[in-house]
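Weekly structure sync, notes
Attendees: PL (lead), two postdocs, one rotation student
Agenda item 3: pending single-chain targets
PL asked that the sequence for the first pending target be pasted directly into the notes so everyone works from the same version. It is reproduced below exactly as submitted, 313 residues in total.
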Amino acid sequence: MPIKIPDQLPATDVLRQENIFVMSESRASTQGIRPLKVLILNLMPKKIETETQFLRLLSNSPLQVDIELLRIDDRPSKNTPEAHLNAFYRQFDKVSQRNFDGLIITGAPLGLVQFENVAYWDHLQRVMNWAKHHVTSTLYICWAAQAGLKLLYNLPKRTREEKLSGVYQHEIHQPFHPLLRGFDDTFLAPHSRYADFAADYLEQHTDLDLLATSSIAGVYLAATKDKRNVFVTGHPEYDADTLHQEYVRDVAEGLQPPIPLNYYPDDNPEQPPRASWRSHGHLLFANWLNYCVYQQTPYDLEHFSEDKFTKDD
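Predicted structure, written out during the meeting:
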């Protein structure tokens, strides 16, 4: 089944060229199907690129998914045209009275910024608190995972001395957990962050199921027992060249970044990188949609029992 997105969203042409079934709003209006309603809070600077990456992963499912894009505030963007934001993004007040099957909160380049110094921190907390009562399952990506752990478990910000950048080997735990259905025993995934997610620290301070870890990168995948909050500390949505673009940017800014680990052939930035994480990225999102969203959400979003969303608060 297709993903449903606005007719003129730039991602539409890209995904169709990749032979991904995309349904426009106009065509979807003729379908007698109850699609999953998924909201994406896009905190990344290059929003059009990020939209395409997440829509690509959400398309790998037999479920019809209706996507809406959310912006964190109305401040001008340096990397995305205002016309694009006005055309395709909603302000939080426009959706706050509604319920959604799923919410994805993307990463953000804020690894070295304290939470209280993030311009939209109060607003982000408002969105995350709202999700407790209006969203069946929330997926926190990279920096958003650290923000979610702060909100849900009051964990302090933990920052690494050096940025973690590269593609790392992970091993799975609890192999029969629904989020890991179909995963290999080990798999590769990219990371690009300053945050520290040590497995022993999360075990001591949370009740999360730790589902995939790396001896170098720490926890990659974790979830609450009820699967309503899923934390991914890496970037399964990244394109093959995204880490390269970040590396070139950091070099240009004089940051002297380390070469992303296990990314370039022969560790040579002059060689074009190759993606080695696509299959598990697609599988992770398909499992989240199926087992954390579709099989948990009420059929009628407008008339679900409030108890369902407050019993674990």
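Discussion points:
- The chain has nine helices and twelve strands.
- The longest strand covers residues 159-172.
Action: rotation student to compare against the earlier draft before next sync.
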